[in-house]
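Most newcomers find our protein records easier to grasp once they have seen one. Sequence and backbone structure share a record, each on its own labelled line. Nothing more is needed to start thinking about how sequence determines fold. As an example, a complete record with its sequence and its structure tokens follows.
=====
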Amino acid sequence: MNILSISPFPLFPPKDGASIGIYFRLKMLGELGHKVYSFYPAPIDSFTGGKVLLKTEADGLDGAFGFRDKKFFKNALHPSIPFYCGRNSLDTGELDALKKFILDKKIGFVFIESTFSGEIYYRIKPVLDENKIPRAFFSHNIDYRDFFNLFKDASNFFWKMYYLWESFKLYRYERRLFREFKLIFSVSFDETPVIAKASHGAEAVWVPSIIPVKNAEMSPAEKKSFQELETSTKGKKVILFTGIMDKSSNIRAARWFAKRVMPVLEKTVPNAEFWIVGKKPGEPVHSLAKPNIRVIADVPEIKPYFHRADLVVVPIFNNAGIKIKLIEALRFGKKIVSTTAGLYGSGLSDLIPAADNPRGFAARCADVLDGKVDFQTVLEKFNQIFDNRKIIADMDRKIKSVRE
């Protein structure tokens, strides 16, 4: 089968939760024998010589094609179309090229990846209907919730109002888009029933995020780095938090743990160290550094830090989608303490220690560091749910059943 994924952002190289989830899902569908293509927005300055679509490399896919990313301010002013949806709209030339591609390649199934691909979907819907091409919506977040969380996290008044306005528009736009589909996939266990209800009759299917299984074995350079970390922290209990550190949700999480949880935790675990390891930390994160709090920026490889960590924390307060940092830590077999929002969507909320106030969170961390919590059941359930080959086989069967 020839499959087309229409995405609101480039997939290759995969560098964040959404692009990682989409790219590896498509790659694994390709490994099952499907021909898989991606269609996404690309920077305007990439286009030369009057090109309408830009063919790019995407390892493991049969083709990736970019259209012009339209960063027009007027898109933010539309009364009903969210900015990122309008930004991903197509002009006539791009639309004609995409329609021709769908017909020439005999596309047999289409994924509409997220609400932000909605305007593209509405433009190609007639050709999909006319040629009876099945399609599914793929939800990576309930996006209006994500933007409402950005509104709560933002400190700048202008951005707060922007995120609130976008959240309001997304609430209505998202539900209208859900109702276009008979089949909707969601990466979030908790959001799947919400989407089913909002869609007024679609079959909503939970598809756990496909995150690659990293080889836990370290290279010689990584082993050297790990040994240096181990030597410099002998006798310490290392608590790790990872992520892209210019994201407001991660900044809030790092500051909350450093300023509110660590002062409580160090009273019962005086040898605890908190490590913030991630990309692009700014002054709000760097300012947290002190003798028992390290800010480690832009490391070439995360493996040595996971191997050294005694505990991974997910003190996130954004309850949208699923947290890739949670899955990544469990892939390394690490013990975890989280907020309830950090576990949202994972299907593991009933097993992983969680708390939403500093004293409770510190107490959970102390219990785990003291060996009072058995994580064997957690890891068994995790490996059962996040079995990539089972996930993709189940999805493949569902796609084929829609075509029959």
Q: What stands out?
A: The chain is about 45% helix and 15% strand. Residues 15 and 56 are 16 Å apart (CA to CA). The chain has a mean pLDDT of 90. The two ends are 12 Å apart (CA to CA).
